[in-house]
Specification:
Chain A: Belongs to the bacterial solute-binding protein 5 family. Chain A: InterPro entries: SBP_5, SBP_5_dom. The complex is a heterodimer of chains A (about 600) and B (about 350). With about 600 residues, chain A is of the alpha+beta class. Chain A is about 30% helix and about 20% strand. Chain A folds into three domains: about 45-80 and about 205-300 and about 550-590, 3-Layer(aba) Sandwich (D-Maltodextrin-Binding Protein, domain 2); about 85-185, Dipeptide-binding Protein, Domain 1 (Dipeptide-binding Protein, domain 1); about 305-545, Roll (Dipeptide-binding Protein, domain 3). Chain A has 18 helices and 25 strands. In chain A, strand 8 and strand 9 form a beta hairpin. Chain B is globular, with a radius of gyration of 25 Å. The chains are: A alpha+beta (about 600), B mainly alpha (about 350).
């Protein structure tokens, strides 16, 4: 627990640092030649042996409470803290992290905690730490709370955690929940918050700070690199030799340099001043300009841009209109213009991920051919619009009231790949006679007012999946999330559609029921059946129109470091610049 | 004279208050508030986060946001400001005064240095151009200064960074000083102090140069015009006829009289440059006022936005105020003529 004196110490340290900086800034009057030189530590390692990557938060402002979004350096968090489990996206397998093994039954799950993992303040990571983190996650609003009650999470010994399910949950589902969780809640910083939650509070510590506003200046990590200090423009982490992965790491430092713009990041890696980039969108012309020793690693992001309709709108509430628009838009060309190397067009708009390698269709099995691919077909689009009461006059479509079929497509102006995509498909729509106009919005206004506020939208762009690969998550997001009621105005409680794989007929679909069954089904035909029924509902009714699926780009400069090939399965875990280090597959070159 | 000083002081206070009031309400007219900006940030950085989690985080921030009516917020802000409290930054989790105090000196240092250098170069070149009016040097320097003055400073910044930073590796490409340098300002350790100051200058050199390259041309052209005008005055012919040395005429008669009208604009320029260096600071990853201005705008951090705008406004207003008050001291004609109204 952090007592008051420790708080004071932290505060006074940062105050002094600010004062020194102020004084230093004011004192720049005369000059001498610059002073640069390598730092040498007691072990004789020089800072040449540090892996350097960018960070967007200035080091002097960084704080390390991940529940406070202000100035949290999430890239540094990837190496400061170990994740519970890691997801390898090439072969779709879960890899051990803090949790080394797991047993999942219909009623409970048992987690084995990795032994001999130290906290950076000297204590050992135990089952109690894992319990604390899981409980805080649930109190913070994690969906895991839909299946596990905080009262049902217990440490049965130093290295075993048991979770009792409120509702049965399949192993894959459960592990998907675990993969985004890092062990970053040491007792001294977080126990007070947990106790307050358990006492019915809102998560407040003895100093009266809420979990979401609490700041940590010097983190106590659980990963292979520990906080060393901040220098001008850089956060310095040093290898924590007691960590079990440290034996595979042959360099002593991991530095994060403040670089505020993508252009600066590209320049720095190109000129050899930094060694890696974590997930930086880099257009093909920039990648082509990089020297040969810079290796690109692409990993499926498991999300992508889709078109979101306001289903209360007089036009977009009509299934025929949504389907007509889907037939007009060329998804391949849209993805090509948005990111030729990193955006894959959605093959069959069904809400199932994995369009980069085509495995999305495997989930659809023998029904794949029966799903509507929505190939570009303006005749079919015209047919659909006419059946919905529209008519074309002089190349422009009019509704029954004689009003032009026109709408604005809202999107955040700063999302360059989305902007490129939207301009492409708006052109397709305009050529067909639908007057679509792009309205670029400021990010805050877009997410805060248009999508989740009162401003609203007719048509807007949104991710159609949310990072977790299993179809349950994207289909749940599309068919049974709060966004249907609050954002899309889409009633998915019951949907009348043709039976799965058929062109006509009528069957009642209740997505919530199928999702409940899907959460239980594990690697069986039943699992596939529920995915197919839900995917069919997305495909036929188009709650959203998935357009493309993204790949994240990371880069490693191999001038000073060796890294495995991008084909290595471990290079497909988020993210190569941090996970490969843990595996001993990103190492400093020997002299 | 007293009335003049009183009027100017009242004008200063009124200007600052008016700008502050206008800014206070204008920033709140921006689409989206702090909660919206926080939501956008959370969605961008955490695509896996549930709506519940996002709501919870936003709520945690809302706890420290005032939800009083706007006019009450305004009165509270003014009251606290008069007590020296600019409020708490929503995005930085620190008092605005601390945030600005840590950033402003760096921006003032770079901008102040650049303006001083540009001013010296500008008036020297302007005087030379006037003395050689009509010569090739005058034509060349006029064209050069117009050209350089027409290109935004961040373009020079990008070019300098590319050539002198990345290609030739002569200057650092970002930051305020080297990570390996300990910030030291201590008379007892002069070598470390000088090394640090040198390192700071080395890091700021390209940024300062980019401003100088743009700014000197304006001063030069202004100085040239003023000097040409002064050179045609009768009292200069008299001075020459009296046999005064050319050097004496150049500095005492021409230089002094030509530079006077530029005094006011120089003081105002410092204020404008404080705001105008935002993009340059981005180019050089130089965390000064520009960084916080952009952060504050993106995060709809009203207190920090207000703080940054206030610093710029007050700097400009004080620049004008100082120029008004001191102009009479450096130009006795203004004091005699303008005792009441100039």
């Amino acid at each position: 627990m952090l007592d008051d004196s420790e708080h004071e110490t932290c505060d006074s340290k940062s105050w002094r640092r600010r004062n020194v900086l102020q004084a230093a800034g004011l004192a720049g009057v005369t000059g001498l030649a610059g002073c640069i030189g390598g730092e040498t530590d007691d072990d004789g390692d020089t800072d040449d042996s540090a892996f350097v990557t960018p960070e967007v938060v200035p080091p002097e402002n960084m704080q390390f409470n991940s529940y406070n979004d202000n100035n949290y350096p999430w890239r540094a968090g990837l190496i400061l803290f170990d994740d519970f489990v890691y997801f390898e996206k090439l072969e779709n397998t879960f890899q051990p992290g803090i949790v080394t093994d797991w047993t999942v039954t219909e009623t409970d799950a048992t987690l084995d905690v990795r032994e001999n993992v130290p906290w950076h303040d000297g204590g050992e990571v135990t089952a109690d730490d894992v319990v604390r983190k899981l409980k805080i996650e649930i109190y913070d609003g994690s969906n895991l709370g839909n299946y596990v009650d905080v009262g049902g999470i217990d440490a049965t010994d130093d290295y075993t955690v048991e979770l009792a399910f409120d509702q049965p949950l399949a192993e894959d589902m459960f592990l998907n929940f675990l993969m985004e969780i890092s062990l970053d809640t040491p007792e001294s910083h977080y126990q007070e918050f947990l106790e307050d939650f358990e006492d019915g509070g809102e998560g407040e510590n003895s100093a009266g700070e809420m979990l979401g506003e609490y700041t940590i200046d010097e983190p106590i990590g659980s990963g292979p690199f520990a906080f060393d200090g901040t220098a001008e423009q850089e956060l310095h982490l040093e290898r924590f030799d007691d960590h079990p992965d440290a034996d595979d790491i042959n360099f002593t430092g991991y530095h994060f340099r403040f670089l505020d713009t993508n252009e600066a990041r590209w320049q720095e890696i190109e000129s050899g001043q930094i060694d890696g980039l974590h997930t930086v969108f880099t257009p093909p012309n920039i990648v082509e300009g990089f020297p040969d020793h810079i290796e690109e690693f692409r990993i499926e992001a498991n999300y992508g841009m889709g078109i979101m309709w306001n289903h209360d709108h007089e036009h977009f509430g009509q299934r025929e209109v949504r389907q007509a628009i889907a037939h007009v838009i060329d998804r391949e060309e849209t993805a090509q213009n948005a990111g030729p190397d990193t955006e894959a067009p959605v093959g069959i708009p069904s809400g199932v991920l994995s369009n980069h390698d085509g495995s999305a269709e495997e989930w659809l099995g023998e029904y794949a051919d029966e799903f509507n691919e929505y190939e570009t077909d303006t005749d079919r689009a015209a047919e659909l619009l006419e059946s919905a009461g529209f008519q074309r006059d002089d190349g422009t479509w009019y509704d029954e009231n004689g009003d032009v079929l026109e709408f604005q497509v809202k999107a955040p102006g700063g999302y360059s790949d989305w902007v490129d995509g939207i301009q492409t498909f708006n052109q397709h729509l305009n050529d067909f006679g639908i007057e679509a106009e792009f309205l670029a919005r400021d990010e805050a206004a877009y997410w805060g007012q248009d999508i989740y506020g009162d401003e609203g939208f007719d048509v807007a762009l949104h991710e159609w999946a949310n990072v977790q690969r299993h179809p349950y998550f994207s289909l749940e997001w599309l068919l049974d999330s709060g966004d249907n009621e609050n954002v899309r105005n889409y009633d998915a409680s019951e949907i009348e559609l043709p039976p799965l794989g058929e062109e006509s007929g009528s069957e009642r679909y209740v997505p919530a029921d199928d999702l409940e069954e899907l959460a239980l089904a594990d690697g069986t035909d039943e699992e596939r059946t529920h995915v197919q029924r839900l995917a069919w509902a997305v495909n036929q009714d188009l709650v959203m129109l998935p357009i493309m699926e993204k790949q994240d780009q990371s880069f490693i400069a191999t001038e000073r470091f060796d890294a495995v090939s991008p084909d290595d399965p471990d290079a497909h875990v988020d993210f190569p610049t941090t996970y490969l280090v843990r595996q001993g597959k990103l190492t400093a070159k020997s002299e | 004279m007293r009335r003049y000083y009183f009027e100017r002081t009242a004008q200063l206070v009124f200007t600052v208050l008016a700008v502050m009031t206008l800014t206070f309400f204008l920033v709140r007219l921006l689409p989206g508030g702090p909660a919206d900006a926080l939501r956008a940030n959370l969605i961008r950085n955490n695509p896996e986060m549930t709506a519940d989690q996002i709501d919870r985080r936003v709520e945690a921030q809302l706890n420290i946001m005032p939800d009083d009516p706007l006019h009450v917020q305004y009165l509270t802000y003014i009251t606290e400001l008069l007590q020296g409290d600019m409020g708490q930054s929503l995005s930085q989790g620190a008092p605005v005064t601390d945030v600005i105090a840590s950033a402003a000196p760096w921006t003032i240092f770079t901008v102040g240095t650049a303006v001083a250098i540009a001013f010296v170069i500008g008036i020297s070149m302007g005087a030379l151009m006037a003395y050689r009016e009509g010569s090739r040097f005058d034509s060349g320097a006029t064209i050069t200064s117009v050209l350089l003055n027409s290109v935004p400073d961040y373009i020079y910044g990008i070019i300098f960074l590319w050539i002198l930073g990345y290609q030739l590796d002569i200057f650092p490409t970002g930051g305020r000083y080297s990570s390996s340098t300990e910030p030291t300002i201590n008379l007892l350790t002069p070598i470390q102090t000088l090394a640090f100051v040198g390192d700071v200058l080395w890091h700021a050199a390209l940024l300062i140069s980019a401003i100088v390259l743009v700014a000197w041309g304006g001063w030069a052209l202004g100085m040239r015009g003023n000097s040409v005008q002064v050179l045609g005055e009768d009292y200069l012919r008299v001075a020459r006829l009296r046999g005064l040395p050319q050097r004496h005429i150049a500095f005492r008669y021409v230089g002094r009289n030509a530079v006077l009208p530029m005094y006011t604009s120089m003081l105002i320029t410092i204020g404008f440059l404080l705001g105008g260096s935002i993009i340059l600071e981005q180019v050089f990853s130089y965390p000064g006022m520009g960084y916080y201005m952009i952060e504050a705008l993106e995060r709809r951090d009203y207190p920090l936005m207000m703080g940054v705008f206030l610093v710029i406004t007050i700097t400009v207003a004080i620049g004008v105020y100082v120029a008004d008050l001191t102009y009479g001291l450096i130009d006795p004609r203004a004091r005699v003529d303008g005792g009441g109204s100039s």
